User: What shape does this take?
Amino acid sequence: MPTVVFILTVMFFLLSILPGDAALLAGDPKLAKNPEAMAQIRAKWGLDDPIPLRYLKYMANLLQGDLGTSYRTRQEVGNLILKKLWPTLSLAGLAYLIATPLGLLMGFVSALNRGSWLDFGALSLAIFGVSVPRFWVGLMLMYLFAVLFNGALPSSGFGSVANYVLPCLTLGYPLIALLARTTRSSALEVMEEDYVQTARAKGAPEWRVNLNHVFRNSLMPIITVAGLQLGTLIANTVIVEKIFSWPGLGNLVINSILRRDIPAVQGCILVFTLSIVLINTGVDVFYAYLDPRIRYD
Assistant: This one.
């Protein structure tokens, strides 16, 4: 909770000191030359209060579940977020479910074939994955499938299975690369442990050694990375959704920032913050079940 409160506090004051008059966005821009009308707009939205007082009101309303009202759509921010939540969660969840097993498989196969062409190919893909930005990959995929392949896959829209393909590839490929590198490094380190060599010396089948000893004991750093990346994956939908015109939270927060719709921006950032904090906490708790040596007071 201190982390969430700190982020919300910094966000509130940064948004409050941005240049420009938020009342122009909260009301009709045609009333900009009407001082009385602008005063009424500021009083209605509380923009005439000092920033510290507005902050206290914001936090008090937040404790009651009130995220405010959007300047642009005049809708409750909570309802606006709920409408956009499923597209974002479905995109991030599907990308995560696809990328995680692929990254684990690629990294483990690479470790078992160290120095081979499989290892070299997996490392090359991993380096490419962590080096190339998502927006470039998204644009190249759009050009490839929408232009060169005559619209083989849709480059925008939401609803069908085909609409998920390009956004999921764009969002998930860095996670595949990161998990592949992490899995390879962790597996190679475990392979050098004495208990692995002892298992082989006792005549245990190679598949059992790799599965029960190498893979299982290399999971700790992998789960750490995979768990933390789930939260950041949800936040990274901002770029992907804007590229593919995806109707989710990412698109909402970009449009709200451009229009300086402060309540909507605050609500979206709150969702992203809570997702990252809760997922990180869940990973920490899961450690106790994965490794019996870990105990929490």
In short: Residues 2-63 form one domain. DSSP finds 13 helices and no strands in the chain. The mean pLDDT is 81.
